[in-house]
């Protein structure tokens, strides 16, 4: 974005930052410009926020004449991989709070036990990647305030609201997780999740100018005018910023509120329908991101991964994955409800899940005790007769497609013979797939 040649892009970005910061209850005066920046996504926003914490901590330690190496950050083990990237790329130790059975987010009490004088911040997640649950930022803030008073430290909080940042203000306005809490110094959110913009836009918002060290902001003028920049990327398009601004002014607070409440209503309905099958445990929470995370009550015959694979035949991509470290024996499926996911689609999805379960129940036990590197149970290749029966409708259509017409000659008939031969091998289980 050449902000000198296209100054309106800067204006639109600043307006978005102002609206989002006030949505997050930043302590701003009426005419005060909020501190923030648009990014490629929440991953870049997290890198920038982490860098700001690290630099501010280093500056403070230098001023006090104390060692400023070996910084650390405290998170839950359920953080998104971008936090691990930040720790690796910028040489920060990541201390993660291990999850426990039945409690799938960071425990604030355990997080406080891990902080020390080298902790640059504690990260709380508003919408866990694994089950969409909101972490208790208010409790974390209260415990950390007490710890800071006892030790003389000044450890802040960053909130990773990639998913929940555009959910909580509209659906759960009474939950205190944002700049209403004094230790929350920065927040990231994704415009391309529930901000309702296509992929490639995130936002990093700081509480005040004091929370963003000036030396991290670069000023360049080779595009014709002074241009401050604090990003890991430089050349990129403005279309996502424009789209975010359009959605914010088009929908407004009430528009976003109506959409997010509908998403939550659909997620609640979908949860009940999945429970009524009698086959699954629900791992997501009522308060959180509008999604349904669930696992099989009995996975001794078939696994969540088999359900995921078979749902693809019906056009659904429902990921199956393992829980965070220390709980990787738990396998789960996740359905994320977006603004275009209707109740009719929910009924169709549940119907297709039931069809998949019926299909799997009709086939022999296929699960082995062998565990792969990911921790997932390995599923052996189906026996030829199972593979054949599963693909008979496809094979018949394949055969019909290549059946020679009355005018077919030479080359066409040769192709047909090859196709028919492939079908025959597939039916007999000699060929596993055709590309």
Could you characterize what this model shows?
With 435 residues, the chain is α/β, with parallel strands linked by helices. It is built from 11 helices and 13 strands. The strands form 3 sheets. A 7-stranded mixed sheet has the order 1-7-6-5-4-2-3, sandwiched between helices. It is globular.
Structure in a nutshell:
The chain has 435 residues and is α/β, with parallel strands linked by helices. It has helices at residues 7-23, 42-63, 81-89, 108-114, 137-151, 168-171, 239-276, 304-311, 343-361, 384-401, 410-428; strands spanning 35-39, 72-76, 93-97, 119-125, 157-160, 184-190, 202-206, 218-220, 227-229, 280-282, 291-296, 320-322, 331-336.
**Quick one: how many beta strands?**
13
User: Which residues sit in consecutive blocks of at least 5 with pLDDT less than 50?
Assistant: 369-400
Structural class: alpha/beta
Order of helices and strands: HEHEHEHEHEHEEEEHEEHEEHHH
List keywords for this structure.
13 strands; 11 helices; alpha/beta; 435 residues; four-stranded antiparallel beta sheet; seven-stranded mixed beta sheet; globular
